[in-house]
């Protein structure tokens, strides 16, 4: 969270500083499971408490945050409404396939899209068939040149100067693996979802390497299935 917030503040220096602060406050609230107080937001932004309060009140007026019984601010329902408008067709077709795959493999499954120089998780499904599995939140951003999902998304583009050597291998074999590159002790396997714009990849993640490696064929089939079903409704090439 700190990196993205710092980048937002930097952009705010040449754009709207108030807007940048408001967005940073919103991201901070979203990333905090227990919510944040006005004082905590003020400390996070490095501003006076009164400024943080006005930002939060504006976000609250528009339904982006809501104040809980304890006084802390929590994500508001408006965020759920907005999230449904992002790539609705792709997500509609992907989610049932992701649920089947997660339960079959006992692994967390995530849908990533390319956004600038990042791979962004826009949907995540955790298995219901096992009690222990790797967990993280949708919205996670990772550099394209780090981790299985990023490698696959890079491999879907023409070769770039200085790109990781593994990306060339991914173009040849059609999938990518990684170990501990995004989260220590976590293994990932990713495959490109074909014929979709923006570029999208499906990734399986687990703390057990053998579990991830055994997921190759089911993952490739799932990615192909999503691409085929969403081909004519989500901006396919």
Give the helices and strands, then pairings.
Blueprint: H1 2-12, H2 17-30, H3 38-45, H4 49-61, E1 65-67, E2 73-75, H5 78-83, H6 88-105, E3 108-115, E4 118-125, E5 141-143, H7 148-155, H8 165-173, E6 175-179, E7 187-193, E8 200-206, H9 209-213, H10 216-230
Antiparallel strand pairs: 1-2, 3-4, 3-8, 4-5, 6-7, 7-8
Which features characterize this protein?
237 residues; two-stranded antiparallel sheet; Arc Repressor Mutant, subunit A; alpha+beta; 2 domains
Folded structure, characterized:
The protein has helices at 2-12, 17-30, 38-45, 49-61, 78-83, 88-105, 148-155, 165-173, 209-213, 216-230; strands spanning 65-67, 73-75, 108-115, 118-125, 141-143, 175-179, 187-193, 200-206. With 237 residues, the protein is of the alpha+beta class. It has a six-stranded antiparallel β-sheet, sandwiched between helices. Helix 7 packs across helix 8. 37% of the residues are buried.
Query: How many separate domains?
Result: 2
The CATH superfamily of the largest domain turns out to be GAF domain
Please write the string of helix (H) and strand (E) elements: HHHHEEHHEEEHHEEEHH
Characterize the biggest β-sheet: 6 strands, antiparallel
Alpha carbon gap, first and last residue? 33 Å
Helix content: 40-55%
> Could you please say which CATH topology of the largest domain applies here?
Beta-Lactamase
pLDDT averaged residue by residue: 84
Q: Spans with pLDDT under 50 lasting ≥5 residues?
A: 1-12, 232-237
**Briefly, what CATH class of the largest domain?**
Alpha Beta
β-strand amount: 15-25%
How many individual β-strands?
8
CATH architecture of the largest domain: 2-Layer Sandwich
């Amino acid at each position: 969270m700190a990196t993205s917030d710092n980048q937002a503040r930097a952009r705010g220096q040449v754009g709207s500083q108030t807007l940048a602060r408001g967005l940073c406050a919103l991201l901070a609230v979203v990333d905090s499971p227990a919510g944040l107080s006005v004082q905590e937001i003020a400390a996070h932004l490095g501003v006076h408490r009164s400024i943080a309060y006005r930002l939060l009140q504006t976000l609250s007026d528009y339904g982006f945050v809501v104040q809980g019984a304890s006084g802390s601010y929590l994500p508001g329902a408006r965020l759920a409404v907005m999230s449904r408008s992002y790539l609705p067709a792709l997500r509609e077709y992907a989610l049932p396939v992701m649920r089947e795959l997660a339960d079959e493999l006992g692994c967390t499954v995530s849908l990533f899209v390319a956004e600038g120089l990042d791979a962004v998780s826009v949907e995540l499904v955790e298995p219901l068939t096992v009690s222990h599995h790797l967990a993280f939140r949708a919205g996670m951003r990772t550099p394209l040149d780090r981790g299985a999902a990023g490698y696959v998304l890079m491999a879907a583009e023409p070769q770039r100067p200085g790109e990781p050597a593994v990306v060339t291998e991914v173009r040849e074999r059609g999938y990518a693996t990684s170990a501990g590159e995004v989260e220590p002790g976590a293994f990932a396997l990713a495959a490109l979802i074909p014929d979709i714009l923006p570029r999208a990849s499906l990734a399986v993640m687990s703390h057990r390497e053998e579990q991830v490696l055994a997921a190759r064929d089911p993952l490739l089939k799932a990615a192909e299935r999503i691409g085929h079903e969403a081909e004519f409704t989500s901006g396919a090439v």
